């Protein structure tokens, strides 16, 4: 006779769904199902995870609501993000709340610069020098898309030099949204009045001066006065 629902050998339904969500997340984060790729069909997931169809269905639906998966009619279910926070941030940026985006960047980047000045290693400094040089080359090349990527790479290198894993993860969550906001700010051309020198920021981190580094990072992101 099969165990009843209340039997200790059968976890409650809600627990099974949470476990299944966790298993799906693990496989996505491990790269088994990359962003842009299609996940296995429902019957295949049932067989692979050892749970019922309804449990799989609820777990997939939860990850769809979180912005990690997307169901495409007649095609299947696809991975659209490895990060549940990124779609939320992207939607906020899409609402054109420019002042809020700047405030969030300031919160992350000022503290990252301060910590980087205290914790940078020789390898970090080499990465910063390389990223700064690439940013300069991209600016002089005159291509907005290349410059946006190079600028983002430099700021990411600053965050990496802070050696704070949680800060790095959170910053990565907003990376796509920040690139989008920078692209909008640059419009279609790199004009002289839009240029912002980042060499002093790298110099401050190299000098190990946290206050100087924080000032330099903050100077790029002055908050917009509210009406």
Output the CATH class name of the largest domain.
Answer: Mainly Alpha
Instruction: Find the CATH superfamily of the largest domain.
Output: GntR ligand-binding domain-like
CATH topology call of the largest domain: Four Helix Bundle (Hemerythrin (Met), subunit A)
What's the gyration radius in Å? 22 Å
Major sheet: arrangement of strands: 1-2
The helix/strand class is: mainly alpha
What does the largest sheet look like?
A: 2 strands, antiparallel
Domain HTH gntR-type: 14-82
Organism: Micromonospora globbae
GO molecular function, one term: DNA-binding transcription factor activity
Keywords: DNA-binding, Transcription, Transcription regulation
Quick structural gist:
The protein has about 230 residues and is mostly helical. The protein has eleven helices and two strands, in the order αααββαααααααα. The longest helix is centred in the middle third of the chain and has 22 residues, at about 100-120.
Write the layout of secondary structure elements.
Elements: H1 13-29, H2 42-49, H3 53-65, E1 69-72, E2 76-79, H4 85-94, H5 98-119, H6 122-141, H7 144-161, H8 165-173, H9 175-186, H10 199-207, H11 210-219
Antiparallel strand pairs: 1-2
Helix pairs in contact: 1-3, 4-9, 5-7, 5-10, 5-11, 6-7, 6-10, 7-9, 10-11
Structure write-up:
- The protein has 227 residues and is mostly helical.
- The chain folds into two domains: 13-82, Arc Repressor Mutant, subunit A; 86-219, GntR ligand-binding domain-like (Four Helix Bundle (Hemerythrin (Met), subunit A)), CATH 1.20.120.
- It is built from eleven helices and two strands; from the N terminus they run αααββαααααααα.
- The protein has a two-stranded antiparallel sheet with strand order 1-2.
- A hairpin with a 3-residue loop joins strand 1 (69-72) and strand 2.
- Helix 4 runs parallel beside helix 9 (175-186), helix 5 packs antiparallel against helix 11 and helix 6 (122-141) runs antiparallel to helix 7 (144-161).
- The protein is elongated and about 60 Å long.
- The model is unreliable at 1-10 (pLDDT under 50).
- Residues 14-82 form the HTH gntR-type domain.
